[in-house]
Structure formats: structure tokens, C-alpha cells
Amino acid sequence: MSTQQDIYAAGSESRPPMLNKENYVPWSSRLIRYAKSRQNGKLIHNSILNGPYVRKMIPEPGDANREITVTETFHLQTDDELSDKELNQIEADEQAIQTILLGLPRDIYAAVDSCETAQEIWLRVQQMMKGSDNRIQEKKAKLFNEWETFTSNKGESIESYYHRFLKLMNELKRNKHFLEKITSNLKFLNNLQPEWSRHVTIIHQTKDLHTHDYTQLYDFPKYNQKEV
């Protein structure tokens, strides 16, 4: 991905992140965070996930002076009958639509621009990007295999190993796979190269692997890497 593409994918304070079709899950997380950061962010977020404000049907009482009772009728709530809170939600509904559309590449935009609400756009993009159950299962299997086979490389710096592990853990979390601290800690420590064994033993003896996490454990080998 080019630098320009990186910028579009990440978004900015004034622009939502651009969808990368190969990374729908992180994009959806970033877009929701962007939406929440906007003015009316809570209302925009609500509109995306739960749908827009639906105008009420206001009852109109029948004419009491008529000899024949007229059944009560209704009219759709007018702008003048909207409360300030309802007006704010309607404004946020429009902002929610624009927030998503600005983050879509042209071909995806063309497939959803007929949608009338942000929620409808959101669900359609989700359906398009997540693919079939088989593809989802294949992705999960690939991710689990990467976890099972993850290890350090001979001659690899502790920084490189840590950053690769951090990236893998982040990908697991994005796909809603949450590991216990003890599991991730043991994976991190036990897959270091043999020359780190003394430091790994010290960590086992001095740290509670049930309460610390690998980001804290990393500090010790990083500080002592000159000894390896």
C-alpha cells in the first residue's frame, strides 16, 4: 500500500478512513471510532447501528360538533412538532450517511448509494465485505494456524519479535478472539530463541503471569537485550 493509500486508510480528523476491501474488520472499527469523535458523535453512532429517527404519527381529534362521530385521524410529525432532541437526531442521521459514504471506494459506493439510511448502508457493506461463512471460517483457520506456529526467528531482535506478536494479538482481537493473559504471556515468553532462556526464567520467577500482560513483560528483555 502506498503512502497516499495509507493516509486514506487511516483517515484523519476531517475525513473518515477509506475502506480497504482486504481489511473490512479494522476499517469498520476505525470508522465507528471516527463517527464517535464527531460533533453529535453519540447520535451518529446510534444512527449507524440502530437506524434513524422515525417521525411519529400525531393524532388529530375528531370534530366534537359534528353529529356523526368521526374516527380519529393521524398526520406525520412535522418539523414544527419536532423537539430539539429529535431535530439533533435527524441531523445526525444525515451526518451518519455522509460519514460512511465518504469512507467507501467508488465501486462499493455505487452499490449502496440507493440506500436511504446509514444503518442500511452499514449492513449492506458488512454483507458485501464479510463474504460467505466458508470464507470467514477459512480466515479464522488461517489466523489460528498463525497463532499456533508463531515463534521468533533466529537472530531476530526483541523489538521485531515483539512487534510481530503485537500485530498478531491485535488481529486476533479484531476478529473477536480474546485470549487469557496467561495464555498470551506463555506464548510470548516460550517462543523466544534459546539465548533468552535465562531472562525468561527470571520473568517466570518474578512476575505473575496471570495479572501482567506481554506488553509489560516485554520491558525486561528489551532492557537487558545487550546481555544476549
From TrEMBL:
It holds the Pfam family Retrotran_gag_2. This is Gag-Pol polyprotein. The lineage of its organism: Eukaryota, Viridiplantae, Streptophyta, Embryophyta, Tracheophyta.
